[in-house]
Predict the 3D structure of the following.
Amino acid sequence: MKNSSKVIKSSGYSWANVEKREYKTDTQNFKSIHRYTLLTNDLPGLNTETRYFEIQPGGYSSLEHHKHTHSVIIIRGSGSVILDNDLKKIAERDVVYISPETIHQFHADNSEPLGFICMVDCDRDRPKIPGDDAIRSRISTEKVLKKIRK
Amino acid sequence: MKNSSKVIKSSGYSWANVEKREYKTDTQNFKSIHRYTLLTNDLPGLNTETRYFEIQPGGYSSLEHHKHTHSVIIIRGSGSVILDNDLKKIAERDVVYISPETIHQFHADNSEPLGFICMVDCDRDRPKIPGDDAIRSRISTEKVLKKIRK
């Protein structure tokens, strides 16, 4: 197998020869967020993708759920995350585990960017966007219902 | 499936309710390194483990190779990494990809700790420690041969 080991140098919160991209192109239920895809399935033997997402103050990721998990470590700033009925504050170096089918959404709601590394299986299902009925049937805490952006 | 989503809060470079552990218990070819196992295969649906390793100044990880890959992001300090015939400087937020069977070793050789998140498949082969013959047959650059600690 070809040796494709490498170091991708950072410069602040961007990376050499890695394109800054839109967060998603197929939905609209997010705000002020971009991504860098750092390690992806074109690398031999790799089963997990590593991506960096950054949300600007006031922005948020899409509200979604899916079978695959997210392993997340915050590396810039602070904010909060919805995990079904919980709303948790998050800051640099905190680790977030998002288990299968948990409804989740990240918010940069602390007047600074929120940047995080997010690992996913290369082979994974597509995210689902919950509708109003799904939200009402699964989310019962008022603080989360107020926090959701869709 | 049980919802086991969670936030693990950090305090500096340690994490709430996560034990600081020895790096390894089955080999001795390393120096001044400890680990925190942050997300592991007791979590439902998880295929990738997330660990934090920290090497104190002058320390190094074991020289090894294996079939599974490492996806690494530096989150503290700086140092260097051997990737077969290459010796690369690494610093905070750099990403390191270690492809199958690459001989590798991390060094905290810049008078500060070197701390990094390392992701591996939950289902993986055991690392192999290369002997002198294997090193000589695969490593030809003098700077790497001088850097290796075993």
The domain at 18-147 of chain B is CATH 2.60.120.10 (Jelly Rolls). Chain B touches chain A through 50 residues (CB under 8 Å).
